[in-house]
Amino acid sequence: xxxxxxxxxxxxxxxxxxxxxxxxxxxxxxxxxxxxxxxxxxxxxxxxxxxxxxxxxxxxxxxxxxxxxxxxxxxxxxxxxxxxxxxxxxxxxxxxxxxxxxxxxxxxxxxxxxxxxx
Length: 118
Fold this sequence. Notes:
Largest sheet: none
Number of helices: 6
Number of strands: 0
Mean pLDDT: 81
Radius of gyration: 24 Å
């Protein structure tokens, strides 16, 4: 994918910058539409690779104790109360977000003070 992005014409980027495009607008309006074909190919390859990672163990491994979690998960989900499963993960995520918000101001203030020291 990198060779395709390296071969995009620089004149188009220069013209967009002259017209006042910022970096985000340049990416959304110029780079993404021009790289749509390669993104489609990469997406297809990613889906096929994921499907192969699921299908191969499903067909080959008859013993359920040897099958990876990606294959066993649908069978496990049928036997598990899914309402209780994500609760601990949500609790941990909530604690991490609260901790970040509490210490965010002090951390950014410290970074700003250190960067201005000279």
